[in-house]
Design goal:
The complex is a heterodimer of chains A (112) and B (115).
Chain A: E1 4-7, E2 10-13, E3 19-25, E4 31-37, E5 43-51, E6 54-57, E7 64-66, E8 76-78, E9 87-94, E10 102-103, E11 107-111
Parallel strand pairs in A: 2-11
Antiparallel strand pairs in A: 1-3, 3-8, 4-5, 4-9, 5-6, 7-8, 9-10, 9-11
Chain B: E1 3-5, E2 10-14, E3 19-21, E4 24-26, E5 32-39, E6 46-52, E7 60-61, E8 64-69, E9 74-79, E10 88-96, E11 103-105, E12 109-114
Parallel strand pairs in B: 2-12
Antiparallel strand pairs in B: 1-4, 3-9, 5-6, 5-10, 7-8, 8-9, 10-11, 10-12
Classes of the chains: A mainly beta (112), B mainly beta (115).
Chain lengths: 112, 115
């Protein structure tokens, strides 16, 4: 049972490049979400999903795209990277009734 | 909209002392949940404790307890007998029950335990 895994752990992009951050969980959790953490701040919700085929926007969705084709995977796509997207990105999952969200180890992204 | 406020950017405590980390929240919902997470320097988010808005007893998990004062909208984390390993960032967060499990986080408190 690997829990929530994220790849890559580190990434450097140039402005305008696109990329996909991968997130997978093996706990059969319905709910998955993406957060970003900027220096000196708490986490902010980007997008979330309550099940395969269902996604919705969080607090800071602009510049990001998601899809959920399977229960296990929830990739986050940066369409055209900007320096403002330099951040640490966390993926989380839980059951819809759980009082605990399980977080992945994070991806540190730098956009030059 | 929900909001979490953590007014202590940093705290310094002597080892073995108890420490209280402050958290106030704002919501118009009647049903909600409050969480505390620990983030050590390695960066992972570690769930510590949960309190439901209708729970009559304060939540406890080992050395962690949540001092829940609903009328004052506060949910302070109390760590008893602090240890060097407790040095970390601590985040308070809340979730409503109307939708999916969307967490709103505070800005965090950096706790340093001195030997």
């Amino acid at each position: 049972n690997a829990g929530v895994t994220q790849t890559p752990k580190f990434q450097v992009l140039k402005t305008g490049q696109s990329m996909t951050l991968q997130c997978a969980q093996d706990m059969n959790h319905e709910y998955m979400s993406w957060y970003r953490q900027d220096p000196g701040m708490g986490l902010r919700l980007i997008h979330y999903s309550v099940g395969a085929g269902i996604t919705d926007q969080g607090e800071v969705p602009n510049g990001y795209n998601v899809s959920r084709s399977t229960t296990e995977d929830f990739p986050l796509r940066l369409l055209s990277a900007a320096p403002s997207q330099t951040s640490v990105y966390f993926c989380a999952s839980s059951t819809t009734s759980s009082n605990e969200q399980f977080f992945g180890p994070g991806t540190r992204l730098t956009v030059l | 909209a929900q909001k979490i406020t953590q007014t202590q950017p940093g705290m310094f405590v002597q080892e073995k002392e108890a420490v209280t980390l402050d958290c106030t929240y704002d919501t118009s919902d009647q049903s909600y949940g409050l969480f505390w997470y620990k983030q050590p320097s390695s960066g992972e988010m570690i769930f510590l404790i949960y309190q439901g808005s209708y729970d009559e007893q304060n939540a406890t998990e080992g050395r962690y307890s949540l001092n829940f004062q609903k009328a004052r909208k506060s949910a302070n984390l109390v760590i008893s007998a602090s240890q060097l390993g407790d040095s970390a960032m601590y985040f308070c967060a809340m979730r409503d029950y109307q939708g999916a499990q969307k967490l709103v986080f505070g800005q965090g408190t950096r706790l340093t335990i001195n030997p």
